[in-house]
Prior knowledge:
Blueprint: H1 25-41, H2 43-53, E1 57-62, E2 65-68, H3 75-101, H4 108-131, H5 134-143, E3 149-152, E4 159-164, E5 168-173, H6 177-192
Antiparallel strand pairs: 1-2, 1-3, 4-5
Amino acid sequence: MSPDTPAAEPPVPAPPADPPPTAAPGRSARTVAVTLLVLGLLGAPLGLLWAALAPATPVVKTPNGAVYGQPQPEQPVAADGWFSLLGLGFGVLAALAVWFVLSRRRGPVGLVTVVAGSFAAALLAWQVGRRIGLGSYQRMLETAPDGTAFTKPADLRAGGIELVLGVLPVPYGNLLLPAFGAAAMYTLLAGWSRWPSLRPEPEPGEPWLGVEAPVSSGPAAPWPAPPAAPEPPAPGAAEPPRG
């Protein structure tokens, strides 16, 4: 190679692929709405399970209505306890499901979604569970003679909805436990996440999720070797003409 020949410059490496574009706002809103709907509807089987596990309370018909058949019945306490345990478990499982299924929407949106969905499920579970056997109880209360013993279906005493100022419904008690369990579990998962953004990120040297690596049609071209330095002139050789 002549000393006057310019050395070939190495090719500039291609820039790294851009991260995948974020989902459109409309698509995110639909995903959140579907998640809320699914979590809320899961309150129906939760209520059926609560009604099956919570014991009915024995009562006796009197001229003033139904009274407890025992001085200090334990069945109402057991009904509240079963609802609390089932509600906490539901909230924890809901947070795990939302965290792993909606991994691209982790953060405040995911937290609000799972808390609101768990609260909706608690409302539906309460109403479904307390209505199982309620019709038979009311018929016995209206038609049974005084002194008749029967049972009252499970209901909440340590939770429910209270009207503030007569118009504003405010939930309280163990009706809020599913939402509390969901918020606590989701917050713990966020605290243990190894990604600052909470969303899965590629490891160094790996492509972004959803971005395919370019496919080569043949073997990759080798990196051009740097030009060799000119050899020194042999002893006694004539020097090249100058200028």
